[in-house]
TrEMBL record:
It comes from Gomphosphaeria aponina SAG 52.96 = DSM 107014. The lineage of its organism: Bacteria, Bacillati, Cyanobacteriota, Cyanophyceae, Oscillatoriophycideae. SUPFAM superfamilies: NAD(P)-binding Rossmann-fold domains (SSF51735). GO terms for molecular function: 3-oxoacyl-[acyl-carrier-protein] reductase (NADPH) activity. This is 3-oxoacyl-ACP reductase FabG. Belongs to the short-chain dehydrogenases/reductases (SDR) family. Its EC number is 1.1.1.100. It holds the Pfam family adh_short. It is an enzyme of class 1 (oxidoreductase). Keywords: Oxidoreductase. The gene is fabG. Gene3D superfamilies: NAD(P)-binding Rossmann-like Domain.
Length: 231
C-alpha cells in the first residue's frame, strides 16, 4: 500500500488499534474519519510521530451522506477503502424495538453503503480500488437474540459481493471479513476475559484485512472470509 490513499473508517476504535498501525507499516497515507476525540488520543499514544504524520483526522458523521460525500471528495483520490465501523446489538426479536433495529442497520449497513458509494465514484475514475468491509460470523450463522445484528451483517456481505460484481472490469476489488469475537477493550468490558485466548486479536485480523487490500489479492473478488480464531 505504499503511497496509496487509504480511507480507514473506525481507525481509532478497538479494531482500528490493530489495523491502523498495520496499514501505516505498509506505507499507506491514511484518512480517518472520527466521531470522538477520545479515540484519537488513544491511537496517538500507540503511534510514533512519523506515523502520525501520515494520518489525517476528519470529524465526520458516517450516517450523514453529505458529510461522507465531502469527506471522500476532499481526499481527491481513494485507492483503498477499509471500513471498520460497526456496532453490536442483541435481544429477543419480540422485544427488540424498531428504533434499535433501525440503529443497528444504520450503523452497520448504511455506513458501509455510503462510504462504498462515494469511494467507488473516485475509484472508477482512476481505474483502481481495493475495498475491504467487516461483516461477522453472525452474518452467515445467525443465532438467537442476534436478529438485527445478523441481518445487518448479512447485508454487508451481500452489498460487498454486489459491488465486487459491478466493478470487476474496473480493477476494483471488494471483499469482506467475518470475524468472531474480537479482542477489543469494549468486548472485554462487556463479556469478561475468561475466554479471550480464543478470541481474534485485532493484529491478526489486521493482517487479513491488509492482505485483501493489497496487490497480492488482486484476483480475489466477492470473498467472505471467516476469521474465527478458536471459537
Amino acid at each position: 500500500m505504499k503511497g496509496k490513499q487509504v480511507l480507514l473508517t473506525g481507525g481509532t476504535g478497538g479494531l482500528g488499534l490493530g489495523v491502523t498501525p498495520a496499514v501505516l507499516a505498509r506505507g499507506g497515507v491514511v484518512t480517518i474519519p472520527y466521531h470522538s476525540e477520545t479515540g484519537i488520543k488513544r491511537l496517538q499514544e500507540t503511534l510514533s510521530a512519523a506515523s502520525l504524520n501520515c494520518i489525517r483526522f476528519v470529524k465526520t458523521d458516517l450516517m450523514d451522506e453529505k458529510q461522507v460525500e465531502k469527506l471522500v471528495a476532499d481526499m481527491g483520490r481513494v485507492d483503498v477503502l477499509i471500513h471498520l465501523v460497526g456496532g453490536f446489538s442483541m435481544g429477543p426479536t419480540h422485544q427488540f424495538s424498531f428504533e434499535d433495529w433501525g440503529q443497528s442497520l444504520a450503523l452497520n449497513l448504511n455506513t458501509t453503503f455510503l462510504v462504498c458509494k462515494h469511494s467507488l465514484k473516485l475509484m472508477r475514475q482512476s481505474g483502481y480500488g481495493r475495498i475491504v468491509t467487516v461483516s461477522s460470523g453472525a452474518g452467515v450463522k445467525p443465532t438467537a437474540q442476534l436478529a438485527a445484528y445478523s441481518a445487518a451483517k448479512a447485508g454487508v456481505i451481500a452489498l460487498t459481493q454486489a459491488i465486487a460484481e459491478e466493478n470487476k472490469y474496473f480493477n476494483i476489488t471488494a471483499n469482506t471479513v467475518l470475524p468472531s469475537i474480537i479482542d477489543t477493550p469494549s468486548n472485554r468490558q462487556a463479556m469478561g476475559t475468561d475466554r479471550i485466548d480464543k478470541w481474534v486479536k485485532p493484529e491478526s485480523l489486521a493482517e487479513v484485512i491488509c492482505f485483501l487490500a493489497s496487490e497480492g489479492a488482486r484476483d480475489i473478488r466477492g470473498a467472505a472470509l471467516p476469521v474465527y480464531g478458536n471459537i
